[in-house]
Specification:
The protein is an alpha+beta fold. The protein has nine helices and 14 strands. 19% of the residues are buried.
């Protein structure tokens, strides 16, 4: 800043000094050359002697043949936004993947959009949902015979079961895909004899591979046909990702703890969205450690206005030392407990818990913005 002021003062002195015509003015070294092109005149093309065989000399910067008349150009003109890249016709939003005997469906949509359509497909096919956990993207149907299903579904599954008189139930799980805003749908089936009351457990990966493949094929066709007409509200998406049960309690040391009944993936997503909705600034994240690094002294949205040269000279931005001096930095940590739920705590650092009032204020804010 001192150097800039010194240069400005030097320029002012030089501009006021007499005898500096060689620097400024129409004949000076630093004269304004922005309008010199207006005095340019067309000259004849360069001619070569007739006995010289030379290549044609083309202009380096030719003027386009059709140039818009400057008088017809509007005074205010807004450059149009570039057109979005269109998806190729061969790309599909839904596809089937296979690895050995395992098959699953991949959707180019978020799990919250796939969940209601997948559930509707099984209900329309005659399956009755016995358990559902939207927070983990899973639902399980009741034990049913093929006669209890829709006629077309019953005939199809009856031909694939070990005995057409057996009962069947399925477990459908919708997981976030490897790529952001994609989903993977898995279907596992279980069978038991008609009249049996034994609660046969679902296998780890696949029960009846042919039956599950048939269900996935049908769901693929149903998802593809309803994709253009399906709509999902933001509220539905939030309810899908939000934990089923949320309660604020204390641990053995009396520190506030927020308990979420969900898996880590959806808890992580929910906490991040709740911090954003609560206008809490997140300086950094470490998903492998389950930590959001927050600064309570700054808001989540802190747009910087673009300043001009003059306003920039007369305004002062806070230094990093000033920002650090007023910062209130804490860590919002997610930890899986023995029961499979997620506990959320607020810490000053990994070895120090945050003050009780600060932790309760942050966790209450998160709770209010969940779901």
């Amino acid at each position: 800043m001192k150097r800039l002021a010194g240069l400005s003062a030097l320029a002012l002195i030089i501009s006021n000094t007499s005898g500096c015509g060689w620097l400024w003015g129409d004949e000076g070294y630093f004269r304004d050359r922005s309008t010199d092109y207006l005095e340019a005149r067309r000259t004849a093309p360069m001619q070569t002697p007739p006995n010289v065989d030379a290549k044609r000399l083309d202009p380096l910067l030719p003027i386009p043949a059709h140039v818009a008349d400057s008088t017809a150009t509007p005074q205010e003109f807004e450059v149009p936004r570039p057109q979005a890249l269109g998806a190729t016709g061969e790309a599909s939003e839904f596809s089937l993947q296979k690895s050995g005997d395992s098959r699953w469906l991949v959707a180019q949509r978020a799990p919250s959009e796939v969940w209601p359509v997948a559930r509707s497909y099984f209900e329309n096919s005659g399956f009755r949902v016995a358990e559902e956990r939207p927070q983990t993207g899973e639902f399980i149907t009741e034990w049913q015979g093929t006669k209890d299903l829709a006629p077309s579904m019953g005939r199809r599954l009856g031909s694939l079961m070990s005995d057409s008189d057996n009962q069947v139930r399925v477990r459908v799980r919708i997981e976030p895909g490897v790529v952001r805003n994609t989903s993977e749908v898995f279907v596992v089936s279980a069978e038991r004899e008609e009249g049996s009351t034994a609660d046969a457990a679902f296998p780890a990966r696949t029960g009846n591979a042919s039956l599950e493949a048939s269900l996935l094929d049908g769901m693929l066709a149903d998802l593809s046909s309803t994709a253009e007409h399906g709509s999902v509200s933001l509220l539905a998406a939030r309810n899908y990702d939000a934990p089923n049960r949320v309660n604020l309690s204390q641990d053995g040391a009396g520190n506030p703890v927020l308990n979420l009944s969900t898996d880590f993936d959806r808890a992580w997503s929910s906490i991040g969205r709740a911090l954003e909705l609560g206008n809490v600034r997140v300086d950094d994240i470490n998903r492998s450690l389950g930590v959001y690094y927050v600064n309570l002294a700054e808001g989540a949205s802190n747009p910087k206005e673009e300043k001009g040269f003059i306003s920039g000279l007369f305004s002062s931005e806070p230094s990093q030392e000033e920002i650090d001096a007023r910062a209130e930095r804490y860590q919002v940590r997610l930890t899986s407990n023995a029961g499979g739920d997620i506990q959320v705590t607020v810490e000053k650092d990994i070895n120090t818990a945050a003050p009780e009032d600060v932790a309760r204020r942050v966790l209450t804010l998160i709770q209010q913005n969940l779901g």
